[in-house]
Amino acid sequence: MSETDNFKKVIAHAKEYGFVFPSSDIYDGLSAVYDYGQQGVLLKNNIRNYWWKSMVQLNENIVGLDAAIFMHPMTWKASGHVDAFNDPLIDNKDSKKRYRADVLIEDYIAKLEVKIEKEITKATKRFGDAFDRKQFISTNPRVVGYQEKANAISARMAKSLEAEDLADVKALIEELEIACPFSGSKNWTDVKQFNLMFGTKLGASADNATDLYLRPETAQGIFVNFLNVQKSGRMKIPFGIAQTGKAFRNEIVARQFIFRMREFEQMEMQFFIPPGTQKEWYDHWKKTRLNWHLSLGMGEENYRYHDHEKLAHYADAACDIEFKFPFGFKELEGIHSRTNFDLGSHEKHAGKKLQYFDQERNESYTPYVLETSIGLDRMFLAVLSHSLQEEQLEDGNSRTVLRLPAVLAPTKVAILPLVKKDGLPDLARDLVACLKWDYSTTYDAKDAVGRRYRRQDSLGTPYCVTVDHQSLKDQTVTLRERDSMEQIRVTTKELPQLLEAKLNLKNWLTNLKD
Fold first, then answer.
1. Is the same domain home to 51 and 135?
2. What is the pLDDT of residues 151-163, one digit of tens each?
3. Model-level pTM?
4. Can you tell me the distance from the alpha carbon of 29 to that of 133, in angstroms, rounded to the nearest whole number?
5. How many domains does the chain have?
6. In which order are the strands placed within the sheet that holds 463-467?
7. By residue range, what is the domain housing residue 62?
8. Which of 453, 444, 382, 387 is closest to 416 using CA atoms?
9. Distinct helix (H) and strand (E) counts, the chain
């Protein structure tokens, strides 16, 4: 099955099982806007909670914030968004379709990476256990050629965008003979910049209304509250401020399901540090954030670092943690060394000092900032797409199983009475009443128990508990594990302790303390 078919299956599964719906679906939807259904909102909340616990609760020097979406318009002038928050736009003259020029080029590079992976796959089959992946990548002429071409294209694009040489960006598209994905036409307009912020107004009448923007990122709410948090919390540098919340960007081309949307949610942490220590903290947070992702058990091979060649105007170092989505490796989280640009710029535009007196250094300074920023919706898609699998069973049948990390699963335990009589539903309901205080629990008595297992597999429920006639005699139940489908007999008294060992957040996050 192709990557495109796999991705279509993820999208279909998300709707069928109540994870994600197109927004305003009865009116044929709204482009690049989505609603999270009854299963999706639970998964999303669990991801957010996993991030928040690891970032705030486990770090004594990181605190939380919930800043407003509306901010004073000067905020966005100071941050550079009014003047510099642009994407390169290009139109195809024949199809009338609009694209981000850099994304067209990135898609071309991605095709080269696919060719590299195909060569590696063929070589793996040919050489078997003797295959040395690293040596093959560095010596095979075809792979080396593809990689050199990809690197050259990426470097040229970064240089052109940094210099705002939009004519060369168009020239690169033409030289690579990149065609419109919709029509196949190569008849392009010139590249121009497009500001991504949504504008709105604040006021009772149009005559005296104030022009505002829907925030394009959550970071600025942290920066303008730096002193409020530092003084009220008696915070000592280094310390961090974390928040999650909605952000809005008028994307030129919002695509790939919930990967790129116009309304999305971020999970960000801004870590305030002394000048001159940014390299140390940059390396620390690169490692720490990758370890957080790896703790979910989705495979080290599915992550990689991508260092930025084109740095934002505020950064002296930046990299992405990329994840292997069904459509290739794409950005999942960014780690940015933002220098003291943000606080310094707000000082200048607001006319108020945003400095910190460091008793150990015996000096005042504008703190530097190390940022970690992850898209909650992208994280949702990474977890969902990686977990959805078709499995062939020994009896010749197949099943669809959503192998979500158990700690993130929307429903942790499904309680299933074998039949809807003989007192089994009553005992099953008693188990639900007992377990629901600690775990999201569901009761399901419809259809044969085998079909109920399959439905819970598709929903990602890690454990099913079946109550049968033996349960009435000895207070034992069958505990079924989703991934292995193994079943064991346990007493109802043992059940909470067994589930605790598998589902407790502490057991997943313990290794992140260091």
1. no
2. 999 999 988 988 8
3. 0.84
4. 45
5. 3
6. 441-443, 413-417, 463-467, 476-481, 487-491
7. 38-72+196-385
8. 444
9. 18, 23
